[in-house]
Structures are given as C-alpha cells and as structure tokens.
Design a protein that fits this description.
The structure holds two protein chains of two kinds. By secondary structure, chain A is an alpha/beta fold. Chain A is built from 13 helices and 16 strands. In chain A, β2, α2 and β3 (52-55) form a beta-alpha-beta unit. By secondary structure, chain B is an alpha/beta fold. Chain B has one domain (3-311): Thiamin diphosphate (ThDP)-binding fold, Pyr/PP domains (Rossmann fold, 3-Layer(aba) Sandwich), CATH 3.40.50. Helix content of chain B is 37%, strand content 14%. In chain B, the strands form two sheets. In chain B, strands 2-1-3-4-8-7-9-10 form an eight-stranded mixed β-sheet, sandwiched between helices. In chain B, β7 (193-197), α7 (202-214) and β8 form a beta-alpha-beta unit. The chains are: A alpha/beta, B alpha/beta. The A-B interface holds A 23-24, 26, 50-52, 54-58, 60-61, 64-74, 76, 90-91, 94, 193, 200-202, 204-213, 216 and B 47-50, 52, 59-60, 63-66, 68, 70-78, 80-81, 84-96, 98-99, 101-102, 107, 124-125, 127-128, 131-132. β9 of chain A pairs parallel with β2 (74-76) of chain B.
C-alpha cells in the first residue's frame, strides 16, 4: 500500500515518470523545470530507471529528439518552461498532427520581456493551438496523477496524441507537499507497455511526415481536429480507471461550492487552492459564491463546463496571461465564444491576475467577485480588467 | 585504425548493390546531381536503415503524399533538426534493444540535409548530436545555395556566385564570402569519421558512405551536388561539373579518420578553375580579377589540406 510522504513536487513528478517506465527523456534545463529533469537524470544514472536520458543542446532539439524517439516506438517524456517552450514552438505543432504520443510537463512561467522566472500562464497560452491534449494540475498530488494519466491517454491507439501536463512554476514545482506515490504494481496494471500503431522499422518501411499538397492538407488538419475532439472520451475513461486503481477521482471541470451560486470564479492551476479559501470565507459571510476549476484545457470540455455553470448568472474568469491588444485573456475569450447566443447564458467578466509571480491572494478573489457583481449591474467600459496593478 | 573497416572489402564496379532504397519516379529536376548522389548513398546503405530527412529539395521531391519514393523507413520533421530527430531515433532504439522490444540487428541511422540545413540553420543541432556521440551518419548534399526556395545564397555558396540574394550589380560581384568549411567544423568535433565525396566518383562516394555507417559513433559525409537549375548549367553536364570541381581543386576529396587527413585523390596537374567556372551561369559575370582571386585562393586552400594530410 502506498504512503503519503512529504516530497518536492518536481521530485514526485520525476518519480511518477519513473513509475510510468518512460524509455527516453530528451531534456534541456530551464528554471523552474530543472528539478524534474535533474532527478530523472539521477534516476537513470543510478539504474532506478532503465531509460536513455538525452542531454540535448536546446529545447528545440529536445522536442525534435522526442519526435524521432516517439516515431521509433519508445515511451517519451520531456519537460520545459517559458522561453524554452517558445523555442520549441516550431516543432510542437508537428508531433500532434503526425500523431506521435509523448508526455511533457510544463512548469508554467512568464515570458520575457522583462525576463521573469516566476509563474503565470503566458508560456502555455501562446501554445494554445499546438493540438496537444492539455491538463492543468492544482497541487502536487494532481501533478503526479495527471502525469501517469497522460501516458495512458496519449498512447491509447484511439488517441495517439502528445499531451502536456501544466504545473505552476515554483508555486507547485518547488514546494514540498504530502504526496502519495502509487505502487509500481498498480501503475503497471493501469498503464500497459506502449505499442505504437506505426513506427520506423526497416521490416515494415513507412514514410512519416510527407509533403501535404493542397489536395490533402485540409484533410490532415481536420483529421487531427477530429482526433483531439474524439480523445475526450478516452481522457474521461482513463480518469475512471484511475479512480478504480488509485482511488482518486478526476473530472475535466471541477466544481467547488457551486450550489445555488450567484457568482462563480473560474480558474486553472494552483490559484484554485487559494480561490477555495476565498470561497469559504465569502460563503461564511453569506455570499453565494463558488468556484469552477478547468482541469482539461484541450480539448475544451464545453459540455461539462456548461453543465457545471448550471443556472449561475455571473462568471468571473481569471486569466494568468495578458495578450496585449486582444479583447481579453484567452480563457475569457474561450468562454465568451462558447456561450455566445446560448439562451440563459451567464454574464462573463474577464480578469487578468497573477502575472510573473504576483500572488493572487484571498482578498484579490474577493475584489474580483465584488467587481463582477458591480459589472453585472453596470456594464464595464473595458472587456477585461487587470487586478492588482500598483498605482505607484 | 577503425576495426569496423577491416571486414569491409569495398564496393567495386563488379559488386554494386542492385538494391534501390530510393525508388525512381520522384520529382527531381532533370540532371539533378543531388538526387543522383542520394541514390548512391542509399545503395551503399541498403535496406537496414532509417532516414531522417531535413526539409529541402530531397524531402519535397520524394514525399508528396500520397506518393513516396522511399522503400525504407523515412521521417521528416522540419528544416534545421534532422540530426536531433536522428539522435532521438538512435537513443530510442538503444533502449528498446536493451529491453528486447526490437531485434538486436544493427540498423543505420541516416540524417540527411542540404547545405543550408547543414551549414547554416541546422549547425547547432548537428553540433549537439555529434558532441553527444550518437551512432549515426550525417550526409550533407551540398548544392551550394537554397535551391528549394529559389536559389538564395547560403554559407556554402562559393565566392563570386550569383544567387537571388547575392546578385551581381553595380556595387556587387555576387557572393562576397568564401565557402564555409563545414567538414572542418565537423572535424573539430573529434568525431571518428569525416569525408568529402562527389557523385562523379561514385565508388569513392559509396565506400565513404559505407565507412561512415560502419564506424561506431557519429560520422559525416559532405557531398558535392551539382544543381543545373540553380547553377544555370546544362543538365547533362552535372557529372562533368562534379568531376571538374575535383580536377580543378575547387572541391577536394578527402577523408579524416580519427583526426588524420587522408587525400582521396591527389591532384598533381590541376586544371585551371576557369574550366569549371565556364558553362555555369552563376559565374558568368565574373571578371578576370575575380577569377584570378578564385584561382589563388583555391590553390591556397588545397595547399592547406595537403599540409594537414602531411601533418596528421
């Protein structure tokens, strides 16, 4: 029986990758992802994990190496962050349309300039459309569980897509939490060995990554779109099986005290922990406030989200990303377009908070709820508001 | 000496492999010297190979879906990263063999790209893969410009050559820089095998490619690849130009085995460079002074190589 132990989240993620028996780890160091790859290289060095650790010369090479390894039929893991994720951006679009399964943990961090090593979601939001399945972890246990879950989903032959598990840099990656690391036997029972449908094999030669002439390009992209939409059922199924084996339940959209709520906060990642405290406080004061946590970001679980919103009339959406010149943050924009012209849909107010490591405190959530209530009465001039900007 | 070479008897005209891992029917231009070289590369390697192709002429002419010219497993990911893709394939196969998930039989891993993919945009990826010591071979098919995008200059474009981004004009005479010494950069990585080759000397080319595959660890072969479309030369003269480049010392053939330079063909009575330059539209604007400079520099570079072969 597995035990809960106090362990740094990055180390726990590496252990989860080891339990998943990853076979190749091409990686390049970047703060705050470093502890994950350091520990993995240690596990390979001391024989705990039978894998190839490829210390590549850049993130671009890391992702390129991942593509080659997945095409050769190995179980692939890598991890990155921020500038590094942006450097591999060119390649990120390729394994997804080529249907090469692999798992990447992204320790979310701000993008330059100014250079910042601290947490927000700008790095992953600019990679929103890479066609990978993407989940967000709220705490260390989730980070471990979602990593194991990611291999199960990505390698499912009906899915065959790369998958990203987002964890907040420092806020999650560098904290010590009580985490239950699963037993090897249970992980083996949950996660069968990777059997790719296609691979580079001289006994059965195939051509991978050919030219897509105009007569086939659209069809290739549509096939990818269908595949990622279709993946949702296998994502859910893998979560159901996860619950059976490990006893922890996961859903694409999670609700917290949403019953009869007038206002729902909507967030992703570690800020949801603070948001729950804020919701408790406001509920104690008699305010009807709840929280929606988006765990599955791609494919977007529209149906589940609408269901989770129920009859609530006000949504206060928090983006940890500020796209300059856009109408609002990416999560806000997504939800507004999803609810557009749906009868009885809620009013959606977009807030930007927690950029570059700025903490989003309980009082900030209270402020957001107050503002959302006020905006519902009198429409705001702007389509979004940045919370906690210093005046001086 | 490299032990893997001992058993290899070498290709001769009598024992040329019948196998064609790269099938005919692809869409290369008439007289393409690059696809000719690639065919020889593939004949030398045979069927137990995995090819990682950089974006470029060879990639597009062989793989417009649903067609493929490849009878061996082949992958294309992007332009600059064929060496990194190859290192992924190599490392993955290493662990899969260890875990008995694939047969133990040796399979060559070939990364192949043009001069732009190799000497310019892909240099870092190649350097990384060479430095890490993956067991693979990299073949550069050098046609001396970005031909696939319409003949733009690269770091491997020769001095004086006209391209669409090094046009001669009132204030320019074409490419102002000397050809980048990419094989020299590879030698600096202390890899066990580096060679230059030419499709005009096809047995030499095939033997070098085979040696590059046999050697344990990274190996590099730089192949001169005439491009009638980009050079403005007659398609039927591609092999002739490839030979002239060697005979005029413009493109010397040599091997560097564990750091030792070995001249494959010592040119005692070199033909003047004009023999090579004439007949190619890319050089026709050059005046005597430039040709004179090219002749002197070609001779000097060749001398440098000779000295290296004597020293090492």
């Amino acid at each position: 029986m597995s035990k809960r132990v106090g362990v740094e989240v990055s180390i726990a993620i590496s252990e989860a990758v080891g339990l998943a028996r990853a076979e190749i780890i091409p990686a390049y160091p970047i703060t705050p992802q470093t502890h994950i790859v350091e520990h993995l290289s240690e596990m390979v060095a001391n024989g705990q994990l039978d894998a190839e650790f490829v210390p590549v010369e850049s993130e671009h090479a890391a992702m390129s190496c991942c593509c080659g390894a997945a095409a050769a039929g190995a179980r692939v893991f890598t991890s990155s962050s921020s500038q590094g994720l942006s450097l591999m951006s060119e390649i990120l679009y390729i394994p997804s349309t080529m249907r090469l399964p692999m798992v990447m943990v992204v320790a979310n961090r701000a993008l330059s300039a100014p250079i910042s090593i601290w947490n927000d979601h700008q790095d992953i939001m600019v990679q929103r459309d890479i066609g990978w399945i993407q989940t967000f972890a709220e705490n260390g246990q989730e980070a471990v569980d979602l990593t194991i879950h990611a291999f199960k989903v990505a390698e499912n032959r009906n899915v065959s897509l790369p998958m990203i598990v987002n964890i907040d840099g420092f806020t999650l990656s560098h904290v010590i939490e009580p985490i239950e690391l699963p037993d090897q036997e249970d992980v083996d029972a949950y996660l069968p060995p990777f059997k790719p449908r296609y691979k580079l094999d001289p006994r059965k030669p195939i051509t991978m990554g050919p030219v897509g002439i105009p007569e086939v390009y659209t069809e290739a992209k549509v096939a990818h779109d269908k595949a990622i939409k279709n993946s949702k059922r296998y994502i859910l199924k893998a979560w159901e099986e996860f619950e059976e084996v490990f006893g922890r339940k996961y859903e694409p959209v999670e609700t917290y005290r949403t019953e009869d709520a007038e206002v729902l906060l909507v967030g992703m990642g570690s800020i949801c922990e603070t948001a729950m405290t804020a919701v408790d406080k406001m509920r104690d004061q008699g305010q009807k406030v709840g929280l929606l946590k988006i765990r599955l970001w791609r494919p977007f679980p529209a149906q589940e989200f609408r269901k989770a919103v129920g009859k609530t009339k006000i949504l206060a959406v928090i983006d940890r990303c500020l796209p300059p010149g856009a109408v609002c943050g990416p999560v806000g924009a997504e939800l507004r377009s999803m609810f557009y012209k749906i009868p009885g849909s809620p009013k959606i107010f977009s807030f930007v908070a927690g950029l570059g490591g700025r903490d989003v405190t309980v009082s900030r959530f209270e402020e957001i709820v107050d503002k959302a209530r006020a905006f519902a009465k009198k429409r705001p001039r702007e389509l979004y508001e940045v919370i906690g900007v210093r005046e001086k | 000496m490299i032990p893997e070479f001992e058993k290899f008897k070498g290709f001769k005209a009598k024992n040329l492999p019948q196998i064609e891992p790269l099938a005919p029917g692809h869409r290369a231009c008439q007289g393409c010297g690059e696809v000719l070289a690639l065919r020889m590369v593939m004949k030398a390697l045979g069927k137990d190979v995995i090819v990682c192709n950089a974006t470029g002429c060879m990639e597009i002419i062989t793989s417009p879906y649903p067609h493929t010219a490849w009878n061996v497993p082949w992958i294309h990911i992007a332009f600059e990263n064929a060496a990194a893709v190859a290192s992924g394939v190599e490392a993955a196969r290493k662990v899969l063999k260890r875990k008995k998930k694939i047969p133990k039989k040796h399979v060559d891993i070939l990364a192949v790209g043009g001069d732009g993919a190799t000497g310019d945009i892909g240099l870092q990826w190649i350097s990384g893969a060479m430095e890490r010591g993956h067991d693979f071979l990299y073949v550069c098919l050098d046609n001396e410009a970005y031909m696939n995008t319409g003949v733009q200059r690269s770091g491997c474009t020769p001095y004086g050559a006209m391209t669409t981004t090094s046009p001669p004009g009132k204030k320019s005479f074409g490419q102002v820089t000397w050809k980048k010494n990419v094989p020299g950069i590879m030698v600096a990585h202390n890899i066990p095998y580096v060679a230059t080759a030419s499709p005009a000397y096809f047995l030499d080319l095939m033997n070098k490619v085979k040696k590059a595959a046999l050697v344990k660890g990274p190996a590099y072969v730089h192949i001169f690849s005439p491009c009638p479309t980009g050079w403005g030369s007659a398609g039927e003269r591609s092999v002739e130009f490839a030979r002239l480049a060697v005979e005029t010392k413009v493109f010397p053939l040599y091997e560097v085995i564990e750091g030792r330079y070995i001249m494959s063909r010592k040119i005692k009575k070199a033909k003047p460079v004009t023999e090579y330059l004439k007949g190619q539209k890319r050089f026709r604007h050059l005046d005597e002074a430039h040709i004179d400079y090219i002749q002197k520099r070609v001779d000097a570079e060749y001398e440098k190589l000779l000295r290296l072969s004597e020293m090492t």
